Each structure stands twice: as structure tokens, then as C-alpha cells.
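Async update (no meeting this week)

Hi team, since we skipped the sync, here's where things stand on the single-chain job. The sequence we agreed to prioritize is pasted below, unchanged from the tracker. I ran it this morning and attached the output directly underneath so nobody has to dig for it. Comments welcome in thread, and please keep replies under the output.
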Amino acid sequence: MIFSNPRSERGADILEAALVLPLLLALMFGVYTFGRGWDLYQTMTRAAREGVRQAVTTNCAMCGDTTQSSSYIQSNVVFPALQATGFDTSNSLFQSTYQQGETYIDSANTVCGVYITYSYPFQVILPFLPISVSTIDLTTKVQMRMENQPVPPATCG
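Output:
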């Protein structure tokens, strides 16, 4: 019968934990960072959708075909929705990428719509890995068909 010396395996658990724990922590922080990025992207898309919805509808039923201006949509619909969830809308990189306009949304150029697009710099922080200070631009674009448009629309944009 061969007996192992119990002293020869002393400290093996600590060594194994020291090797595995940094990888486990990096994996957990990676999952958290990915989840946070996904949440930010969904919030961006939701805010842009609300802005486009406001842009394609008329102000009131009795006013005719008047719609809100691009600056009104940006400052009173999209940015407040983002600020309510913790976005820093004063970021110059974010503000420089914000675009809103009208365009044809079909290939035959018969349906006019409104679009909003912008990017937000998201910093990826993963401990123990060399890509810890990377920045990813999360970009969203939402477009909707304009209501009450003439057939065919004279111009778009």
C-alpha cells in the first residue's frame, strides 16, 4: 500500500485559488460590463424611438401638419430620457454625433420618414486584462414613417 505524504500537498488549495481566482473575477467583471453596455444601448434606442415618434406626429389635431423642430426633440425628448437613466449628455463626443433629419425609408423613394442617430462612448473596464481602458462607441439609429404625408411625397429632407 502506498501512502502519500500529507505534507507534500500542503498549500495546493491556496495555489489553485491564486491561479483560478483572477480568471474567475475577470469573467465576472466581463459579464457585468457586457450587461451594462447592453443596458446603455437599449436605453439609447428607447430614447431615440421616443424622439422619432414625437418628430413624426403632429403637434395637435387642429394645428394641421406642423411638427416639432429638431432642436426641440433633442432638448425636450431625447436628452431628458437619457439623463433620467444616468447618461452624461454634456459629453462633447456624444453631442457631436447626434443627427436628426428626414429621408426616404424605402428603396423606391416613395415613403418619407424621420431618423435619429447618435453614438455614445462606453468605456470597457476589465481587470487583469490588457484591454481594460478600451472605449467602444455604442451607435443607434431609429427611423419611422411620417404620418399624414402626401402621396407621393414631394420632397423628403
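Quick observations from my side:
The chain has one domain: 10-145.
Residues 10-145 form one domain.
Reply here if anything looks off.
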